Amino acid sequence: PPLPPGAPLRPFSLPQTFQNPTRVITGEGCAAEVGPHAARLGATKVMVVSDPGIVRAGIPTAIIDSLHASGIETHLHSHVEPDPRIELVEEALQAYRAFGGELIVAVGGGSAIDVATATAILATNPGPLRGFEGWEKFPNAPAPLFALPTTVGTAAEVTPFVVITDAAAKFKFTIGSPKAAPLIAFLDPFLVLGLPPSITAATAMDALTHAIESYTSLLSTPIRRLDAPGARFDLALDILQQLHTARQSGLRGCEFQALAGDLRVDPLDLEEVLETLQALDWAKTHVVSQLALTQ
């Protein structure tokens, strides 16, 4: 919950909850398991949300093939942009409803997962989307959502937050709830092997920033205390080493480190980082702005 006015920033000053509602499936080629898991949910129509670059690279093909092999009809929605705007979410919602979707599968980076998550929220909660800004502001569970990250930085596949841009107000707002987290995250290293070195570097710096956030938080939790400071520094050093080499083998570790770093971040950390990014330049991409912050 947000801090009340005048509350001290110190450990144990507020009741805190640690919850990770997302089931995480890992392993090379685990993206092929999307179809069977969707079938177990009883889904017969699935909308796959991705971005144009990911689609051009052919990455969603194996996931769509897995769904088809399980007897599931699919619709690919690829109108996703960095720092997604409210209008993109509303467009995705229209596509989902017109298709008669029963499950959403996000394939991509943080922007694709954010669009998919916001669409899932609006599918069961009448908007406007901005009305759900804050923590636990929407009443109904979103439409079922799976997430398959194709970058290694944001760990959006396990976070209970979605970040959307209100372009008219030049403002990024956050919607948060345990219900917003994807049901299942598939961490398949094969989906990140083709990343260009520049994207690898940017997303690795994003993962590093999450690790730094977890270390510098003024509201350390008992769960965080179980993770020794030395282990967090080892995490940061590993990310830096893999960023330096930018080899395909290193991306496997970075994907899991991004997830681990994000699970350590307090909600207040995320809010403070977003506020700082807005002060820098509201239109900057998330990873590049975080790179500036870490410098």
User: H/E order of the elements?
Assistant: EHEHHEHEHEEEEEHHHHHH
Shape: globular
Q: If helices are DSSP runs of H or I spanning 4 or more residues, what is the number of helices?
A: 11
The spatial strand order of the largest sheet comes to 1-9-6-4-2-3
Radius of gyration over C-alpha positions, nearest whole angstrom: 18 Å
Are there runs of 5+ residues with pLDDT below 50, and where? 247-254, 260-285, 287-295
Approximate helicity band: 40-55%
Percent range for β-strand residues: 5-15%
Sheet with the most strands, sense and barrel status? 6 strands, parallel
Quote the distance from N terminus to C terminus.
30 Å
Provide mean pLDDT, rounded. Answer: 78
* Structural class computed from helices and strand pairing: alpha/beta
Q: Would you report the number of β strands?
A: 9
Q: How does this structure look, described?
A:
By secondary structure, the protein is of the alpha/beta class. 44% of the residues lie in helices and 15% in strands. The chain contains eleven helices and nine strands. The protein has helices spanning 34-40, 52-56, 60-69, 86-99, 110-124, 197-216, 222-225, 229-245, 248-263, 267-280, 286-294; strands at residues 23-26, 45-49, 73-77, 103-108, 134-135, 145-149, 161-166, 171-176, 184-187. The longest helix is centred in the C-terminal third of the chain and has 20 residues, at 197-216. Mean pLDDT is 78; it is low at 247-254, 260-285 and 287-295.
